[in-house]
Amino acid sequence: MATPNPQAQELITCDLCDNSTQQFCNNCQLSLCVDCVSKHVDKLKYQQHDIVHFKDRKLDFPECEFHSNQRCEAHCQQCDVPVCLKCIFGPHNGHKVKDMPGIFNDKKKKLEKETKEIECTIIPQYKKKNEETESKLSSIMAEFDELDKEKEKHRKSWHQEVDTIFNNLGSLMKSIKENLLAALNSHQSKMKNQIPDMTQTVKKNKKILKSNNVSAVTNYKSKLEEYRNMPTDIDVKLPSLKTNTIQGRELSLELGEYKASLTQTTLSSLTEEVSYLSLQKLLEQAKSITTIPTGVNTLYYVVCVGVDEAWVSGEDKTIRRVDIHGSVRDTVTTTCKYWPNDITVTRQGELVYSDGPNRTVNIVRHGRTETLITTPQGWHPGQLCCTKSGDILVSMITTDFSQHKIVRYQGHTVNQEIDRDEDGEPIYKGGKYTLCVVENNNGDIVASDTNADTVVVVNKSGRVRFRYDGTPARRKKSFDPRHIVTDSMSHIIVTDWNNDCLHILDQNGQFLRCVDNCGLDNPKGLSVDSEGRLWVGLCDSEEVKVIQYMK
Questions:
Q1: Are 398 and 375 within 8 A, CB to CB?
Q2: Reported pTM
């Protein structure tokens, strides 16, 4: 059975109501039903009206821009512009011209063909890919559910003292899962966002086709190639959990590059072994993978999105998403008075930025900015951290720079404020620099207090666990901490502005090593991608260094 042509069945309606069209006004270029002819003539009674049957309608030739009262009934092939008779014998004398009805019909046929391809081929392809991505998301969720069950089954057979290893394992799995889901959600979002635009294009094209307006048809700009360029599918690689148990002698497990094994031993030596395994993950010498030029004026902030992309911003209102090759993939113009005070991304991959002068924390959804949080009067938001639980940590500073605190928000609700220790003394030093804040895998809240030249770590309840002042690193200049991150192994990594390097600590504040061999001049912004590589923003050179620092 033949499939009916949807365009052949489409009803052309009156421009003044929803009834079907029978008549057409050539002077006004309006489609009219029988009932609306008199309404149209009466409304514009002092204007001439050439009312004809719709099939006898005439083309509406555009007026000449250069000769008054002249219609462009031809098109100059050499100059690609509409021309009137005076133009043909004047500035376009000798040029090859084609009659306007011919140009109109050629372009109209092309427009019909493009519209049909978008509506009947490309949109269904996007919808199919969207469904396939939805299936991948469900499959990954199910796989990770099974993986988590398997992890818990083996946890019970191990002694209580190995919880540290399993916590690291769970954090790594969660990190892999989140990055995969973020990449797929981002991929799905690109396709979902394109479908309404294509649908709108089809609607607009159909309106042009119906109108018989020459200018609208000849000025049409094709978006077909853009729509044909469908986003590349995400390559999903799922890890597998491998275990081996020799009762009473050895226990081992492996997830991707993470490996752990235990032999029968005492608690003290077990703790040393776990620390040793963690240390072994670090390379003796970090490697610079690539240098990415960003073109950002005074590069301040870097936040990774998936594997090979990151949002970057500096001293202007625009936040850019660049890939590892330096290409700009997306831009967001913020509502900031000057420029963002920090940027981060949620677990779903949505961009979040703070605006200190306006006292707001904002989120970008489907290209539009929404205010998530407005801080109290006299307090201004600085650095941000989206936690694994979905909360947002916001570092705040008073208008006079005298006080600092870290506030945990769940939606619009304040769940926690961290500013005083158990003796009532300020945890963070007053000064003009805002606190850089991040949450570690064990729930610790890690802050870089540039005013005190110290890294301060508090536990989940806000009690100070330790402070790090850079002394163990034995650098030539004083420690000047800026941005800070934690990784899948719970390492704490902080940029040192004065010494052009990175400090790496374990989760208990033990100094492990410095990264100082990768040309890190004035490092400020810092982020970790889903492959465990560091993206370091160099403030003055406006470049991002991608660094491999773990095995």
A1: no
A2: 0.53
